[in-house]
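Long-time lurker. I teach an intro course on protein structure, and each term I like to show students one example going from raw sequence to a predicted 3D structure in token notation. This year I'd like something fresh instead of my usual example. Would anyone be willing to generate the tokens for the chain below so I can use it in lecture? Attribution to the forum is fine with me.
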Amino acid sequence: MSDTITITGNIATEPEHKRTPAGVAITTFRVASGQRRYDRNSASWVDAHTNWYTVSAFRGLAEHAFHSLKKGDRVILTGRLRLREWDTGAKKGISAEIDVEAIGHDLLFGTSRFERDASSAPQSAPAAEGDWAPAPAAAEWAVPGGATASESTSQVAEASPDEASLLVGADTPF
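-- Reply from a regular --
Happy to contribute to a lecture. Here you go:
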């Protein structure tokens, strides 16, 4: 079986980085993808079943994943699902493995800062004279609210009453 799957979950093991004899980078880790449901009897959110996946990233993605992720991080990932039967003699089972194609931090639960890999950064050619107008002075750059960049602060603005009404119930897990 090789279906595409997208999951969210928590990294449950420290990412492990290896190289094949041919030099291909591989990073593997386990992800716990749990479901939550609202229990009307207790009037609270409760944990339901948790699915466990062994995740493998290859080549450049393996390098980036190893340097960007750690145990406990909440992630969203997509990749090819493989279900493998196993038998130790005493026990039989099925393991779920994902060959990841894309992975990132789940920004619902925190923040992250992207840093482009130097080898994948676009190469800029010098512009021919007359292709671009000169950039305006820093004071001319406008930011939301009509202030200029020099007047702006890095503080987060408070939501307006209309915006706040859209967020009612946004603090619930789902």
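Some talking points for your students: Residues 3-117 form a domain with the OB fold (Dihydrolipoamide Acetyltransferase, E2P) fold (CATH 2.40.50.140). The helical segments are 59-68, 161-166.
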